[in-house]
Amino acid sequence: MSNRTVVVAGAGQAGSQAAASLRDEGFQGRIVLVGAERHAPYQRPPLSKGYLTGKVPPERLALRPPSFYDNIDVELRLGTPVTSIDVDARSVGLGSGDRLEYHDLVLALGARNRGLPIDGADLDGVLTLRSLADAEEVRRRLPAASSVVVIGGGFIGLEIAATAVGLGIATTVFEIAEQLMARVLSPGTASFLVEAHRRRGMRIDLGTSAATMTGTHGQVRAVWTLDGRSVPADLVLVGIGAVPNTEVAAEAGLLVDNGIVTDPHLRTSDPHVWAIGDCASFPCAYADGRQMRLESVQNAVAQARAVAAALAGRAEHFRAVPWFWSDQADLKIQIAGLPTGRDTVVMYGEAEQERFSAFCFAGDRLVGVESVNRPADHLAARRLLELGIPLRPVDLTRPGFDLRALASGRSAPVAPTS
Ligand SMILES: Cc1cc2nc3c(=O)[nH]c(=O)nc-3n(C[C@H](O)[C@H](O)[C@H](O)COP(=O)(O)OP(=O)(O)OC[C@H]3O[C@@H](n4cnc5c(N)ncnc54)[C@H](O)[C@@H]3O)c2cc1C
């Protein structure tokens, strides 16, 4: 495979990993990693956490040292997007005007923040956070802010809000739904989070929609809700979800449906084009094969590795256990599996001490575990899900039940119920 060319479009978490994993797999052909941003591939998670407070300096954001790509002979084309794909000619057009031919194309285009189409959204001081450039702007403005409003109570919004509270800034979160992250979190964990943040001084308004923003001299000053209330704000962060970057794929005739649609091998509707990370909609083994998109570092990395293996002739159905983390103030939230299909939730640990895990079951089958400040539970949960070790709701309530022993294979699966 030494004379083959793989073009990776998108130099983020998934794209960078795909290039590295191709070399790990022994791929000897040409690899070109094309990125719209001018920065070498960097991590996004710190952008809404330690980067905002200065705890993570800019030089620690890079995913790999600058010499890495040269060392493994990966050509970096930064600051130029892929603007077109010709699947018949197997070539891509770049913003720079260049064309690149490929044998295989890996689309790792990520997602962008959803816009908020309300009056005042274009005022100065209304920001979103996805890229390093966005984070630089938030970081520059945050210390001078006296009142921050975050629109959207998702993970990124809550991380930014928790950071602002930590800096002593009056902070309000507006969430349109009656529950935080209702699509992702179980109700118990969601209400725990609301209360935990309120105890730390964050104001969270559930069931509240931002209707308009007003300002003076072009600078935002207040956010008004649909029910006519207003909250002062000199900095507004809009975090109402992301939309996948699919346009270039759709224009090329690839199948797109809330993401670039792939098969279980992460191959798109064209046999020489693959899609990974935030932009890919794949049949998820942990959701009974339903097509879904996952926005997480784990998913980006695991899918990149899977495609590299497939290109090296070791294609397997992608079935990595999904997991995710979010750091909000001193709360480490970790999710293993997909708790969405649950019908039973068993709390394990001490919620009042802010250390617990919510085990989510569909019938007697463990489908996901949400942990707060219980990293050992999270690791055990990943192992149970990966290895398919059975655990039923009743087992967690048995005296002497040892989760770690079960996950490490030191204890026999649990006794049958009568
Ligand atoms: C602020 C923030 C905090 C996060 N925190 C966490 C966390 O705590 N835990 C967690 O698991 N996940 C977190 N995530 C999610 C995680 O970072 C993403 O899921 C992950 O980066 C996805 O990798 P990706 O390669 O698919 O996309 P990205 O890393 O976004 O990379 C996609 C790249 O493609 C580029 N691109 C787009 N279009 C083109 C084009 N046409 N041509 C060339 N390049 C293009 C983009 O500019 C971008 O650089 C966070 C995300 C953000 C934004």
Structure description:
The chain has helices at 13-24, 50-53, 68-71, 132-141, 155-166, 187-199, 247-251, 297-311, 375-387, 393-396, 403-407, and strands at residues 5-9, 30-35, 74-78, 82-86, 91-94, 99-101, 104-107, 111-113, 126-127, 147-151, 170-175, 203-206, 210-216, 219-225, 230-232, 235-238, 242-244, 260-261, 273-275, 280-284, 290-292, 323-328, 331-337, 344-350, 355-362, 365-372. It is 23% helix and 30% strand. It folds into three domains: 5-112 and 243-311, FAD/NAD(P)-binding domain (3-Layer(bba) Sandwich), CATH 3.50.50; 115-240, 3-Layer(bba) Sandwich (FAD/NAD(P)-binding domain), CATH 3.50.50; 330-407, 2-Layer Sandwich (Enolase-like, domain 1), CATH 3.30.390.30. The protein has a five-stranded parallel sheet with strand order 3-2-1-7-19. It has 418 residues and is of the alpha/beta class. Helix 1 runs parallel beside helix 8. The longest helix is centred in the last third of the chain and has 15 residues, at 297-311. Flavin-adenine dinucleotide binds next to helix 1, strand 2, helix 8 and strand 22.
